[in-house]
Amino acid sequence: MGINFILILKAIVIGIVEGMTEFVPVSSTGHMILAGSLIDFRGEFADMFTVVIQLGAILAVVVLYWKKISSSIVEFFKYIFTKGREGKTGFRFGINVIVGSIPAAFVGFLLHDAIKGLFNPQSVIVGFIVGGILLLIIENIYRKKKPEARDIDEITPKQALIVGIAQCFAMWPGMSRSASTIMGGWIAKLSTPIAAEFSFFLAIPAMVGSTGLDLFKFDFSIMNTSMWIALAVGFVVAFIVALVVMDKFVSYLKKKPMQVFAIYRIIVGILLAALVFAKIITLPAL
């Protein structure tokens, strides 16, 4: 059997979409669902593919923030082994990541199948619009207030828990994990860039855990050479694009508000809803 170049091309498209949208507040899952529907990239392999390439984006976090991650891991265990005499900063950061990850882990484990049932374009449209409106409202209320944490090491466990609870809203496709955690960060009185960076770190356990659950249920016997190539290509593309976008996004947040993302979400959601209602395009459930 020859190589399916059309499948690989679709994998590149979805990889670009994932890399561009994973860490900005527009919903990577929502965009991948819509893009997959429009280019006819659906089915069991497509479902697995969109989950696995998210790990490519997560690898971008590890590479970009390797110094912080590695030093925090060393300090975390140093704090334990020295009984608190050394490594306090890294230990506190590790505790914050753990505390911030607990709500999503708990809800995701209990409602995993129900959440997967929401993965359709109709849910995405609702998530786009509602998430965009919430982004406008919450930014308008909290962004003008003086943040209590302007450095990631100033975050308290209470603030981490608030952000972690907010992250649970991202389980509705189209809401966006980045948007949900940044809004949680505003409520917890974090500066916008720090809220965004903390959301990057929370993405690591959240997405690795979610991917593990999905891959455990996947039937790898259906995989062929083209699928393996498509998976590898999509992973690499998502990693490279996410690496570039993530760095630019944090720089953007240091200077400008997130209104443009909220407006984009609302416009795209309304446009898609109108096109579907008018039957100009058809976005079947996945």
Automatic annotation (TrEMBL):
Tell me what topology the record assigns in the membrane: Multi-pass membrane protein
The family database entries (InterPro entries) matched by this protein are listed as: UppP
Where on the tree of life does the source sit, at the highest rank? Bacteria
Function summary: Catalyzes the dephosphorylation of undecaprenyl diphosphate (UPP). Confers resistance to bacitracin.
Lineage, opening ranks: Bacteria, Bacillati, Bacillota, Clostridia, Eubacteriales
Which miscellaneous remark does the UniProt record hold? Bacitracin is thought to be involved in the inhibition of peptidoglycan synthesis by sequestering undecaprenyl diphosphate, thereby reducing the pool of lipid carrier available.
Compartment(s): Cell membrane
Q: Which GO terms describe its biological process?
A: cell wall organization; peptidoglycan biosynthetic process; regulation of cell shape; response to antibiotic
Q: Which UniProt keywords apply?
A: Antibiotic resistance, Cell membrane, Cell shape, Cell wall biogenesis/degradation, Hydrolase, Membrane, Peptidoglycan synthesis, Transmembrane, Transmembrane helix
Pfam family name, one: BacA
Designated name of the protein: Undecaprenyl-diphosphatase
Known catalysed reaction(s)? di-trans,octa-cis-undecaprenyl diphosphate + H2O = di-trans,octa-cis-undecaprenyl phosphate + phosphate + H(+)
Q: Where are the transmembrane segments?
A: 7-28, 48-66, 93-112, 124-142, 186-208, 228-250, 262-281
| Species of origin | Clostridium thermobutyricum
Q: What is its EC number?
A: 3.6.1.27
- Family per similarity comment: Belongs to the UppP family.
Q: Which GO terms describe its cellular component?
A: plasma membrane
GO molecular-function terms, A-Z: undecaprenyl-diphosphatase activity
Keyword Oxidoreductase attributed: no
